[in-house]
Design a protein that fits this description.
The complex is a heterodimer of chains A (92) and B (458). Chain A has 92 residues and is of the alpha+beta class. Chain A contains 3 helices and 3 strands; from the N terminus they run H-H-E-E-E-H. Chain A is globular and about 35 Å long. The chains are: A alpha+beta (92), B alpha+beta (458). Chains A and B meet through strand 1 of A and strand 10 and strand 11 of B.
Chain lengths: 92, 458
């Protein structure tokens, strides 16, 4: 699986949220507003178009902050406890 | 059977359910491989007739070095189009050609060859795209000359490769109604633990269709040394074949277009040897088996070594299988037939051994020429060109495997063992079906039954 930085995830995650970013925990949709609350800079023109189809974000393990992103024909894994906390709070 | 609805998860996803895989040597130094999907299609199943799934990947896998992993894959991907958005009908008049304006919902497909190379990225070659599948066989008014439609859908991709995809008559035959009623064999049910009068077998698939993916390729495209072997004893003469289907990890319901997939492709069905998952693997592990690679089949070997069916037969047919009941050793014969291939030295002039890696693959020794008069019992009948040396459409799989499990092949590894007398005669009695027909050229499998002719749901 491809390595990913938190920054690159958030850029792609924000784009995916426009389509459908599903969460395994609770099965709720992550709103674009929630993603926009991160400290990441806004997408540059054309960045959203770089994301193929739907991006699905899955919290694999909330306790460890393990997150998986399904994008195109790939699965990207990384760990971000702060992001998981934010997502789960938004899902309440 | 042989793998129709054989596991809990895939039984709920029939369009991805690989029902049978066939591979046999055909004229012109070619191999024909068929993988079937969509079990037990009722021919009258309209108005949304059966079709392949655009969100599923269908692979024909070939292992030519015995490691249980594909060295060559032919992948088929489909695309469905609706040409007339203003009708509920599949067709608005007779479909007399593959470009008929009367045909409303049609499928095309792309064939990609993937060659896996150690230490390097796989080489991917698109062999054909925009290839047409024929319509389903509806009836004399909608598909009045079905044979010509099916014939037109055979595509020659050059370099000796032909492909066909579409609806066909299921070539498999089995008395499903009896065998899943506590392993009843109607011709011998008078001997069953719960006896009734003996009767003729009844083929549950006698008028069922499937959806076929067929490919014919030169032998030299498949062997490890890219040659046409002439010595059956050469390790390079054996290839392993299995069909498999894949779905992306997540599926998301679209508001207007059904499902969209995202994420990596994951295997959801596979089939090498017929009936392996159906009657060897316990129900609790069938879904796991469908998702796993043949290279990892070692963990399933214990079910081959001590098959449940071999223990059931003496119980369900009291007094009929005393020698089988007394056989307490691991079934080295079945381990060889199903998981490694038959090594040399057991059958004169024959082997289809691929090494010590235990992997469920349909092993074909391509140096064995086609039999002029095939024997339905394949190797059990002395026909080296039949199952389990590959599998032909006419091989009587249920009888062969039933007899093998009952002990017919155990003398190969223990000459002191004498199979029970019943072993040479037991069968489910479904072979002699005059309605089962085949084509005399690629793709060989029979034309599908028409919905008009088979109006009752099976």
């Amino acid at each position: 699986m491809d390595p990913v930085t938190r920054r690159s995830f958030l850029i792609k995650g924000s784009a995916g949220a426009v389509g459908a970013a599903g969460l395994a925990a609770g099965g709720l949709a992550l709103s674009s507003a929630a993603a926009a609350d991160t400290e990441e800079p806004d997408l540059q023109p054309g960045e959203a178009a770089d994301v193929p189809g739907t991006v699905l974000v899955e919290i694999e393990d909330a306790a460890t902050g393990e997150v998986k992103i399904l994008v195109g024909e790939r699965e990207v894994s990384f760990t971000d406890t702060a992001l998981v906390a934010k997502v789960l709070r938004a899902a309440r | 059977m042989s793998s129709h609805r054989e596991a809990p998860a895939i039984s709920k996803d029939p369009v991805a359910d690989n029902t049978d895989t066939y591979a046999w040597r055909t004229p012109g130094n070619t191999v024909t491989i068929i993988t079937n999907y969509l079990p037990v299609e009722a021919p009258a199943g309209g108005p949304n007739f059966y079709e392949f799934d655009d969100t599923c990947a269908y692979n024909v896998n070939i292992d030519n070095d015995g490691d249980g992993k594909p060295d060559i894959t032919y992948q088929f991907r489909f695309k469905t189009v609706i040409t007339n958005p203003n009708t509920f009908l599949y067709n608005t008049g007779p479909i007399t050609s593959l470009d008929s304006a009367n045909w409303n919902r049609r499928q095309t497909y792309k064939v990609t060859k993937i060659e896996y190379r150690r230490g390097r990225k796989p080489r991917t070659t698109v062999l054909g795209r925009g290839l047409a599948s024929p319509p389903c066989n509806i009836g004399p008014r909608s598909t009045p000359n079905y044979a010509s439609l099916a014939s037109a859908a055979v595509a020659d991709l050059g370099s000796g490769v032909k492909v066909f995809t579409g609806q066909c008559a299921d070539a498999f035959f089995v008395d499903l109604g009896a065998v899943f009623d506590l392993a009843t064999l109607r011709p011998f049910q008078n001997l069953h633990l719960i006896p009734t009068a003996a009767a003729d077998g009844r083929d549950a698939l006698a008028q069922a269709n499937v959806h076929t993916i067929a490919i014919q390729v030169p032998i030299a495209d498949l062997t490890r040394d890219r040659k046409v072997p002439t010595d059956p004893m050469s390790p390079a003469a054996v290839i392993g074949v299995w069909g498999a289907s894949y779905r992306q990890k997540a599926r998301i319901r679209s508001r207007d277009r059904g499902w969209n997939g995202t994420g990596p492709w994951m295997q959801v069905s596979r089939l090498g040897n017929p009936l392996f998952n159906e009657v060897i693997v316990p129900m609790a592990r069938k879904d796991e088996w469908n998702a796993s690679s043949p290279a990892d089949d070692r963990s399933f070997a214990k079910y081959v070594a001590r098959p449940e069916l071999a223990a059931l037969l003496p119980v369900l047919y009291p007094g009929v299988f005393p020698n089988l009941a007394a056989l307490k050793k691991d079934r080295a014969d079945l381990l060889a037939v199903l998981l490694t291939g038959i090594p040399s030295g057991l059958i004169p002039g024959f082997q289809n051994f691929t090494g010590t890696t235990q992997a469920d693959e349909l092993r074909l020794n391509v140096a064995i020429p086609p039999a002029p008069t095939p024997n339905r019992l394949g190797l059990l009948g002395g026909d080296l060109a039949g199952f389990p040396n590959g599998r032909r459409l006419t091989d009587d799989i249920v009888t062969i495997e039933l007899r093998a499990v009952a002990g017919a092949t155990y003398p190969l590894v223990d000459p002191t063992f004498t199979p029970d007398g019943a072993v040479s005669v037991i069968e489910d009695g479904t072979f002699n079906n005059p309605g089962r027909t085949f084509r005399n050229a690629f793709p060989y499998i029979g034309l599908p039954y028409a919905g008009y002719d088979v109006p009752a749901a099976m």
